[in-house]
Specification:
Structural class: mainly alpha
Strand content: under 5%
Number of helices: 5
Largest sheet: none
Shape: globular
Number of strands: 0
Helix content: 55-70%
Order of helices and strands: HHHHH
Distance between the termini: 37 Å
Number of domains: 1
Length: about 80
């Protein structure tokens, strides 16, 4: 779904129905391999996505920026 009124309405329904925590929970596995330094920006984008603020194409692009993924997800530090 592209950014615009339809996506904004769908995001608002998630918020209005109190489903934000559940929606973010569904993404836990997808972000579990991120380095801690990469997790903070992703968390901020998710907070913004599941809010009543307008979501733009710039937001989409920012969320799609590649982030380092831990091969074993065992370290809290990115590789040197």
């Amino acid at each position: 779904m592209s950014p615009g009124p339809e996506l904004d309405a769908a995001r608002a329904r998630v918020v209005d129905h109190g489903l934000t925590a559940r929606a973010v929970g569904q993404l836990t596995e997808a972000v579990s391999g991120l380095w801690l330094e990469a997790l903070a920006p992703v968390k901020q984008h998710l907070k913004r996505f599941f809010s009543d603020r307008r979501w733009t194409e710039d937001d989409d692009e920012a969320l799609m920026v590649p982030v380092p993924v831990s091969a074993a997800a065992t370290s809290s530090s990115p590789p040197s």
